[in-house]
Amino acid sequence: MSMNHYYLLGRSGLRVSRLALGTMNFGTAGFHAAYGKTEEEARAIFRRYLEAGGNFVDTADFYTAGQSETILGDLMAEAKVRDRVVLTTKFTNSVDPGDPNAGGNGRKHMIRAVEASLRRLRTDYIDLFLLHTWDRITPVEEVVRTFDDLTRAGKIRYAGLSDVPAWYAARAQSHAEANSLVPMVGLQLPYSLIDRTIEVEHVPMGRELGLGLTAWSPLGGGFLTGKYRQADQGLAGEGRLGETGSSGRSYTDQEWRLLATLEGVAAKLGVTMAQVAVNWVATQPGIASAIVGASSAAQLDANLAALDFELPAELRAELDEASAVPPRSLYQMFTPAYQSWLVTPGAKVADKPAEYAPVVRNWTADATA
Prior knowledge:
By secondary structure, this protein is α/β, with parallel strands linked by helices. It has twelve helices and twelve strands.
């Protein structure tokens, strides 16, 4: 497989791969230690991603207690690829429990976090710096102003957000635009066939305001790989979800039916369930990139092959129907069915014709590299 096709992230000139490499498992310490990889194991995964043409790498200061960033810094220096890699890291979570300013999204912690990440990553700039999680109390204006200052200081190239309410992201972007501050270009959120929540507000908000959405957990925490089966007390199967017996949540009958539909679609295409699930996410409206992790280079190869085929419209429709959750409350009023019934009855109304803004591609139609 090859990932030598790149697309712009949000309303920016930054070119990124449609599949990003997640490195939450690089390292063997801290919160993610149970499934972490040593530097030697991570090296094979990282090198394979680069060999396939990938350039979008995601980490965070919180992952494996900072080891993920340290290992990435070593691997980039070793391979001499720092300028080629679009490096993303994130801040918010505490690095010193008990110190109220060692976590959260205030200016003091943001600056502390970026300086610490730069040291661990062995670089003098971060391509995409993300707020990791909304902390509920820091004024959004303070966050946006600090992003602007860090950009002007050359510490970061682009700013973005992760795991925030849609209204917060909209407020951040609008404040940046109104005050000529650097805009947010990326928004990282959970998205999969088993969790389409962001379609309600985040996806249309991102498309309207120029934030490219990067989807994490496109396999639904591993559920969509098909390696788990229903058991009396939760899940059965080899993997993180099966190890705990239940993954901390119960799965509905609809979700198990979705899994059966996914299995059927994969069989028709001659690919794996995981590949179909990743393909579906990466090719959904508003999605700039999907984050894939791996426990080995071979598993990474399988994940990267998710874009080697096209998901036919009729099979996508099967997956859409099986995974759909009807909108509730006022969101019902924003559906095509409701609006064609009450808002524009007797008329066909759309925003623009399909040919209004054709896709711009800098490669020939038959190019394969």
